[in-house]
Specification:
The chain is mainly beta. 0% of the residues lie in helices and 54% in strands. It is built from no helices and 14 strands. Strands 1, 2, 4, 9, 10, 11, 13 and 14 form an 8-stranded antiparallel beta sheet that branches. Strands 3-12-5-6-7-8 form a 6-stranded antiparallel beta sheet, with no helix packed on it.
Length: 181
């Protein structure tokens, strides 16, 4: 995996009325490249059988030519959180696919939150939310930036992955590194 430095310089005030010079904010991210078959495999599979919330930061340079898994499974083709060729998010639970209209912004770090409460699934991208009625079946997750879809691997940057099953934090994986280890 390639460690890429992501620098944002803020020229506009972050808070109304704030005046002054701000320093650039520097963060380091793992940059996944599909042609190199790069992905992260979770140490153990996560099965979300009830209410859940999955949140992460995602940056992609271009929309994929076909649906790609952001978080998925190498053992089940029907369980994944993916990105469509339009830049919209697809949630697939037990082969039932739910496509949301909100899209990620290309070349920017997007905050994505996917949650299910009962049979209501909500996807929020940068604070824009949409809810649909979804399956209450179990969702199996084993991989990050890959899945059983063809092609398997996804280009892009992902960080700050958190998965909560009901009220229990199951995964808390920053996936951002400074390259000093």
């Amino acid at each position: 995996m390639i460690i890429r430095k992501f620098v944002n310089s803020f020229t506009e005030p972050l808070v109304s009325g704030f005046r002054g010079n701000l320093l650039a904010l520097t963060r380091y991210f793992t940059d996944f490249t599909s042609s190199l078959s790069q992905y992260v495999e979770l140490s153990s599979a996560v099965t979300l059988s009830g209410d859940f919330e999955i949140e992460f930061d995602l940056a992609v340079a271009a929309n994929p030519s076909q649906t790609k898994a952001i978080i998925g499974s190498f053992t089940q083709n029907q369980d994944f959180i993916g990105l469509l060729s339009t830049g919209a998010v697809r949630v697939d639970i037990n082969g039932l696919q739910y496509d949301y209209a909100a899209t990620v912004s290309l070349g920017e770090l997007n905050r994505v939150v996917v949650n299910r409460t009962g049979s209501t699934g909500t996807v929020s991208i940068n604070g824009v939310s949409e809810s649909l009625t979804v399956s209450t079946g179990a969702l199996l997750l084993e991989t990050v930036m890959a899945g059983l879809l063809t092609p398997r691997y996804t280009d892009g940057i992902i960080s700050n992955l958190k998965i909560t099953d009901g009220t229990t934090l199951v995964i808390d994986m920053p996936i951002d590194e400074d390259g000093s280890d």
